[in-house]
Amino acid sequence: MRTENAVFLLVLLLAAGFFSYNVQRLLSYLSIAQPDDRSGHPLVRLKNVITVAFLQKKILRDPVAGPMHALIFWGFVVLTVGTIELLLNGSFPAFSYAFLPSQLYTFYSISQDVFGALVLGAIAFAFYRRLVLHPERLEGDGLEHSDALLILGAIAGLMVTMFAVNAFGLALEPDSITRAKPLSLALSIPLRNLPTGLLTGAHAVFWWMHALLVLAFLNYLPYSKHLHIVSSIPNVYFSNSQGPGPKGVIRFLDLEAENVEQFGAADVDQMTWKDLLDGYTCTECGRCTSVCPAHLTGKVLSPRKIIIDTRRRLMEKAPLMLGDYSEVAHHALVHGEGDEGSMSATAILEHRLLDNFITEEELWQCTTCRACIQECPVGIEHLDHIVDMRRNLVLMESRFPPEVLPTFESMERNGSPWAFRPDDRAKWADGLDIPTMAELTERGESPEILFWVGCMGSFDDRSKKISVAFARILQAAGVPFAILGQEETCNGDPARRMGNEYLYQTLAKQNIETLTRCDVKTIVTFCPHCFHQIGNEYPQLGGNYEVIHHSTYIERLLEAGRVPFDTDAGKTLTMAYHDSCYLGRYNDVYDAPRETLRRALPIVTMVEPERTRDRGMCCGAGGGRMFMEETQGKRINIERAEQLLATGADTLAVACPFCMTMISDGVKAKGSDVPVLDISEVVASRLRV
Amino acid sequence: MKIAVCIKRVPDMETRFKIAASGTAVDEAGLKYDMSDFDGYAVETALQLNEKQGPGETVVISLGPDVVQEQLRKALSMGADRAVQLKAERVPTDGLVIARALAAELKGGAYDLIFFGRQAVDSANATVGPMVAELLGLPCATAVSTLDIANGRGTARRDLEGAAEIVEFALPAVVTIDEGMPRARYPSLKGIMAAKKKPLEVKPAQLGEERLTLEKMELPPERAAGRIVGEGPGAVAELVRLLHTEAKVL
């Protein structure tokens, strides 16, 4: 071994050692977090890693930045193979991949050159995009471009030095085994005439530059948002955002556990390790914030900020919790104790994520629409952070917008978010000859399905018409069904989304008790919130039922030819369908409502708003927002109504009673008289009487 | 400060009441109960006073059968320190009997303030608070909508029809609380858990003889359904005539 190889080996070991020290430091910070079992379903998780991480499925949703990033990422994967060869070769000159079969080696050589060039091109575009195009989502939340520019510069440097090493190497030895690298070979041709000494020197200089840059870049990662290249694969693996299991299910909170004194999270050590890993993984791309309905209508909430704040607070608090005061001491040394930008350890420990970093206002603005999670290419689950902090606000501190108090109280007293009398719950069905489960049980009968009406369908005047329309379809199709009548209560979704897990579990347990007593197997509902909650979240409390949304159910009835239609073809309509978040992004039901409309109206023209399907924009009612004042910025429902009206549709269709209220109000506020119909109303209007 | 708050369990007033077979009580089937609204304001006022003015004790007292413990627990979960149930088979109709039982409990308690709701939202007598004040020989400010306590004296505002009164009194005193005071806080789960461990003492209520008994309850006559007189300007004359002759509001 020559001296320079020994020196390099030492540098390599030092760099690797420092990197692993930092990785262990960051891993140790996760130890302050709460447990969360994400070990199940390794195959599904692996599949997510392959599609989301390696195939860049989410990244490619952005038609501009997507291909750019994918090229850099794939280039990184391919070129890492070459980097390993280079680092090993630098320490042990005898090492190279030359032992590979020659065709494979040639393929490897070509791949290095081709991807090197592609990455360089992509980096050039990235610079152009960041410095000239200034995409909106890369701004805001106190972000600085310096980190990103440094990273881009480093990658560019890596590529340039790599080509230089190869070119000078080939100029020295044109017949070297590496000559299969077409670009490097081309670059080497003009260099061949240079003196050998110069070539050797230049080759050595670029080699060291490249190798040191690799090691420096590696050690820069733990101090930068670029850490995502290490953390995103595990984060995608452990993320539940693509499954396993139904999407968007809120973490169960055991309220009866002994000795638990904290419910929800006010600070990083009360969050789960996955929440903190989310923080490490965020690369501040802003895809989440750019689709957030609250952010888009001028509110302070930015899902990206929630994640960045989680990381900032973790980096501040975790070292102190683990007994490492060096950061504080360093800060005090540089800035002086108590100076601006510097805080004592006690002050840091007295701070917390909630209030000091993230305000109550931000948290209550979330509609839980899942658009942020849907867009995140690295499996960050923003809603876990938000709901956990809402839980702390409600369960620990009883802090929530004042208008929510009557909602909670009414859910407690009346079993619905509004102060309607529970005994009026089935009044909409008066005279429609709809039996209740209790009546059927008395007669010794059991229906094919339970029609779960929901609070909107029971009490809201507009939604009661949807209840009637759906009941008429079921009757016309000859489906034996029943309702629970007064035995039904709110499913608890608004309480759960607003952090009131205690109230949620009280209501859910009561419903599960009723459903079990009535021996219910199949439930059909037109409310996506009831649909998601009962079908996907009740299993946490032991309630397991087949729950079908009416869009799917009606589609099946139509497909089976069970719905008797009038012989005319119905009205000629141009329709835009608005996707409900809890039906679409939460449950992937996109086609059933559209197909239902098509089958019901043979001459319908379906038009799509710009934001549609899994990119659909929330109406503004989810996450308990239905029951809160919207005081900041533009109203979300008006923004969405504008988007829908911009399609030029003469009729708007929805499949959620909350969307119905919000979109109808939005359309009215715009002074438009375009009707807003539930898909069941469209179908019912064509029934043969 | 040591503050006592006397609270009453009442049915949810949104209910469509039915009269029980006895004819002297409401049918309890399906009724939901809560603390009387004004009593909720009273508990909240006491809690905020003690939170603001430093170490104190808030004691909640309710007279009635064991079910009143539900409302006492709620007050504890809001933050009251301890509770006393004056056990009685039922809540007497005669307010003076209730007042005497409460006064007997409050007498030796060395309370600086004794709070009541302005009235119970179900029976609406508004008598027990002033009676307790009389029995204990304390000043009494009723239907108070703001309250300041400083240097052993209280200043309270009473909202009247079209005017307001500001009254002053020395502590100890009895105060009955009206709207305008802060609404009862929503108990946090932390509070509910803590309430399970707080003391709730059960004592027999010292009940005297009732000089007032409930003979009969009846529902108010059903309101006639609204009538549509007609549409457009043509209907105005008829509407005015009906408002004048039938509704007699013009």
- Spatial arrangement of strands, main beta sheet of chain B: 9-8-7-10-6-1-4-5-11
Oligomer: heterodimer
Any guess at the CATH architecture of the largest domain in chain B?
3-Layer(aba) Sandwich
**CATH level-four homologous superfamily name of the largest domain in chain B:** HUPs
In CATH terms, what is the fold-level topology of the largest domain in chain B?
Answer: Rossmann fold
**CATH class term of the largest domain in chain B:** Alpha Beta
Uncertain ranges of chain B: none
Strand content of chain B: 25-35%
What is the topology, as strand order, of the major beta sheet of chain A?
A: 2-1-3-4
Q: In this structure, how is the largest beta sheet of chain B organized?
A: 9 strands, mixed
Beta strands of chain A, count: 8
Percentage beta strand of chain A: under 5%
How many E-type strands of chain B? Answer: 11
The coarse overall form of chain B would be globular
What is the makeup of the main sheet of chain A?
A: 4 strands, parallel
Rounded to an integer in angstroms, the radius of gyration calculated over CA atoms of chain B is: 22 Å
Helicity range of chain A:
40-55%
Poorly predicted parts of chain A: none
Helical content of chain B (DSSP H or I, runs of 4+): 25-40%
Q: Give the rounded overall mean pLDDT of chain B.
A: 94
What is the radius of gyration of chain A computed over CA atoms, rounded to a whole number of angstroms? 30 Å
